Every structure is written in C-alpha cells, then in structure tokens.
Amino acid sequence: MKSYAIVGVGSRSYLYSDALLGSFRDCGRLAGICDLNQVRMDYANRHFQETYGIDPVPTYKPDRFEQMIAEGRVQTVIVTTIDRTHHHYIIRALEAGCDVITEKPLTVDAGKCREVFCALERTGRVLRVTFNYRYSPRNSRIKQLLGEGVVGGVKSVHFE
What we know:
alpha/beta
C-alpha cells in the first residue's frame, strides 16, 4: 500500500486526508502530517479520530520533515501549505526520494519554478499539480447535474 504524508494541515489538506482515511483507505495510508502549528495538527488528529476512528497520525514540525519521510516510509508527499512555501517542500520531498502532489499554484515566481524543475530533473521523481476546488461538493454536483442532462448542456465557458 502506498504511503503518503501531508505538509500543511490547513483547510485544503482535508480533501486529501479525508480521501486517504475514507473512500480510498484501501489504496494508501497517511503516514504523517507536518505543519508549523502543533495545535492545527492536533485538531486534524481529533478530526481523524472522530470521523474515522483511527489512532493519531504522527505529527512533525518542518525541521523534522525528512524524519517524517524516513519514519513513515513515505512515497508521496502532498503539499498544501501556503503558496509561497510550496517550492520549499516540493524540493525537499523530491530530494528525499518522494513523488509530490501539490496544490496550485506550483509556486509564486519564475525563480522558484526553475528551482522546482531543476530538482525534478536532478531526482527523476514525479510532480503533480492539482486544483482542489474542482472537487468541491458544489462543483461536483453541478458536473453531475450537467452529465445527467438535468439542467441542459454547456453553451459557453468563460475563463476570467
């Protein structure tokens, strides 16, 4: 079973942790969470225990990021930190031998983007950039209704 860790345990992270602990629990395991704020990690663990009845997931501060990867035998790191720190954790995870899933944006400027691409080239690992809003309950329901023909067909799309 694939082993995952999440860095950044704010609201964006719950789409991933809830999937790993809920509907996709047979596909992977959450081996650790990492955040600057221990209270936020404790809150996440309470949510995990109350919702999924599991033991607490090991927590790590950023200075123990590589320790989390080693102890949890993490294969994929999910980055849901604030945007300006994405590159930092992406590069650390790649260099530790992990693949990475990150929330958009990949990073906030061209220089940091170059650093990420250099790390990808150096390590040969895989990076995926995702957009969690696409899976929000409202948008999922709209897609379902459109697919069922309940509200008619799409006539135009604006990307503003």
